[in-house]
Write the structure tokens for this entry.
Amino acid sequence: MRTSREVTVIGGGVVGYTCAHELARAGHEVTVITADPPGRTTSAVAAAVWFPYEAAPADAVLRWGAESLRAFGSLAGDPRTGVSLRSGLVLHRSASPDLWWTAAVPSAEAVGTGLPAGVVSATRCTLPVVEMDRYLAWLVAAAGVRTVVGEVRDLAEVPGTVVVAAGLRSGVLVGDDDGPVPVRGQVVRVANPGLTDWLIDDDNPAGLTYVVPRAVDVVCGGTADRGEHSLEPSAEVEAAILARVGDLVPELRGAAPVSRAVGLRPARSVVRLDRVVRDGRVVVSCYGHGGAGVTLSWGCAADVVALV
């Protein structure tokens, strides 16, 4: 166990609180400063099936993702976490799909029959599905750290070693010209008629499509509008999502929405995870996870602890 020292984590989403959790376990005195309560962050909107979407570089993403996969596998045994292991399909619409991500998955099986029209093949695997409302509440409590709600505009405002994990706000804080930039994602949730398997169709010619069943609802998505900042759900976009979902999963045709949400994924050319010394103190950056914040969270947190 390390000697405790003061660390401030800026950012109250899944990456920030996972870093806080692991830093506290390593013996540090941790404060999280978040502009929004965890339940109002982009993390809270996520469908949150483990999948390295919009994240690079591949070698680091595989390492971080594999570490997180193991962590979520352990958490799935505790019903308080909202983590479950579910089987599902990643659909492929080309004869030579890029399966780089399967290197981090213990077992992945090729499927070539019984697929929707236009789908050439699929990969079946069992992955964590995380119900983010329950999971964030569990993570905050499990971290056991001090939380302050407020917006940091200058790193000089906060004491001690700093971990910047503030999503879209991160670049401004550390003077990063490489983003991150928003990739707008809209979802609609419908009642679960008894589905258990998730489905991802990110090459759908009509638009990114995914179906993620949870205990009582199904998260249906989505969009990937780069550079868009609006958090207002679009009725037209919602109708298109439900139409695509209905084509792939007949059980959801005509399903009535029970809720809807929009989140802004923090995308960057590569995830930034590094350590610099500024004005005599350590600043660790951990942001730019795109649509893979949940997927990479535990692996990245382990690296943050090593850098601090």
Remarks:
- Residues 177 and 254 are 45 Å apart (CA to CA).
- The mean pLDDT is 95.
- The first strand starts at residue 6 and ends at 10.
- Helices lie at 14-25, 58-75, 132-143, 170-174, 235-248, 293-307.
